[in-house]
Structure formats: C-alpha cells, structure tokens
Amino acid sequence: MSPDEATPPLPRPYRVVQWATGAVGRAVIRDVLDRPGLELAGAWVHTPGKHGVDAAALAGRDPIGVPATGDIDDILALDADCVVYAPGPMGDPFADLEPVRALLASGKNVISLTGLVYPYAHGPRLASELEQACKRGGVSVHGCGVSPGFMPDVMPIVLSRLSRRITHVYVRECMDLSEHPSWRLVHDTLGIGRDEESYLRSLRPTRTAVRSVFSESLHLVAAGLRVDLDDIDVDVDYRFAGTDLPTAAGVVRRGSVAAARWTVSGLAGGRPVITIEVVHKADAARIPDWGPPGYAVRVHGRPSITLTTGEDWVTSGVAAAASHAVNAIPVVCAAEPGIRTYLDLPLVTGRMELDGP
Description:
By secondary structure, the chain is of the alpha/beta class. The chain has helices spanning 3-6, 23-34, 55-58, 72-76, 97-105, 124-137, 154-159, 183-189, 196-224, 317-334; strands spanning 14-19, 38-44, 82-85, 109-112, 140-143, 164-176, 231-240, 245-247, 250-252, 257-268, 271-281, 294-302, 305-309, 338-339.
C-alpha cells in the first residue's frame, strides 16, 4: 500500500458565497477567509462599482482571485455549499423570497441574516414555498443573527430551561444611536429626527415592518415553550428632543423625534405571554426615559430568571452577527433538507483557539 493510499483524504472545505457586502457581509468574508474548513466561493454585490472587484479586497484583505458579481445567474452557477444572505434591513419577507428560492433550488444552503428565523410566523404560503425550494435543491434554509436571531428569541429559550410553569417572557433591547453613522438607518428607517407630522405618517408602514420582523422571534419562543399564539399586538410611544442633539449620523433637531419605544406582544388566552420591547434613542445620555442601553431577558416562572446586560455586552454587534452565521455553516449544510430553525439544529458554538489572544 502506498503512503497516499494509507492517508485518508482531507475533507473538502465548505464553499461559501456572501450575498451583499455591507458591514456584516464584509465581516462574514473575513471570518470565512480565516477559518479552516471554509472557502470563499463568491460574493454578490448591489453597488455597480463593486462588480468585478475581488471579494476579499472588498473586505479589506489581499485579493484571492474571486471576483464579486451583481448577476444572480453567476451565483446560481457557482459550485458552492452555502450562501450567507445579508442584503440589508429586515422588512417584508416576501420581498426577498425570489432570490432565496432560486439559491435554494440551485442546491445551495442559505443562512439568512435578514429574517427567516422562524418563517412559519408568516403563514403557510411562505413556509411552503421555502420547503419546496429546499426539496428541489436538497438543501436547508436557516435564519440567525443577534436581534432578531439571538437575544429576543434564542436567549429566552435557553433561559427557560432553568424554570417551569412559565407565565410570561419579557425581552428588552435599548439602543443608543449617538455613534451610529448611517442617517439612512437612523432617520429614514427608524424615524429619529423626523418632525411629529412626518413621524406619524411613517408609522403605518413602520408598524407593519416591526410586526413582520419581531413576529418571527415571538413565534420561535412560543414554539420553544409549546404555546400557540392567537395574535400579535404592536404599540409605539415616542419622545421629542428638548435641544439639538449632535450624533454621528447628523444633528437631531430640537422638537423632532429623539426616541421611540416599540412594544410587540404575542397574545395567548386573551393576554400577552411574550413581550419584546425595543427602544431607540438618538442620545441615551440626554434621554433618560425607558432606561439605559442594553438588553434584558426575564422569564417569569418557578423560579423566575432575569438576565440583564449593559450596552458593552458585546464588543462588536456586527462581528457577533457574522460569527453566528459562519458558526452555523457546518450544521446547516449537514442538516436534512427544509426549513431549519434554532429548534431543529444541534448546539452551535465558536471554535476555541489556543494560539491566539
């Protein structure tokens, strides 16, 4: 027997495509490049100026000979195992359904950082179309992230293992936006800095988007706790700036909306059983209402469990979201075809490294 025959071949690395190269997408690319067992196979980009640019270079690394493309057909034709899907802010899950279905049908597992944490929350049509695409491609789809994807959904389920006779689950997220650089996100998406009339006009579509985004988290927690939700209630309150507030994204003028609190509740048996409270502040140091930045998770039961964090609970939310997706690649690729939520997959962890900080 020759030495080559005696040595088993090394397993083929998982070939990964990054869909969109914003801050999270670039972090995913760097993570894939740094991990044994993973290989960057391609990248889809929206901006025309990025077309043809080396995917690694887009993430600040040395070129590796993998050009980015804006043509989905190029991505569909690639020999790849998984696509990390991160096209931008979450909203209507049906708006992005076609590219996700195409990716799945082409035989590529999809890990979404834009919803799909619990697709069943949107009714049978979405789940059925995803399942059919998964069946055609023989692959799986999984949604993850930080919020949604971990703190308002995975963390309550984990903590609930310490309790019984649970009566209510409460999750709070408070974000200080003073250092966030994107006026598009702060002002256009979240409404911070709008005058009251403009803010009220924007509430109807925003309410629909908030309900869509967090309904998945509510239904995931409900499924984990074996309860069926009857309805979802959405409420909002807001505060005005008492003075001009300089922020990294721009000045929030006196009299404009400076903070908002969204409360999204899953109802069962005529009462809220799971509540998610999301607070956005233009400058948390100047707006004391609704508490300090950070997260809180409370599982009311016997015993009750409370976990609270400050805003420094993670050194980089972007890197955490990217790692959550990249850590899931092997288990998602190995899973049975279909929709695979946190409830379906084995525990996913990061890798301990002994030769670095």
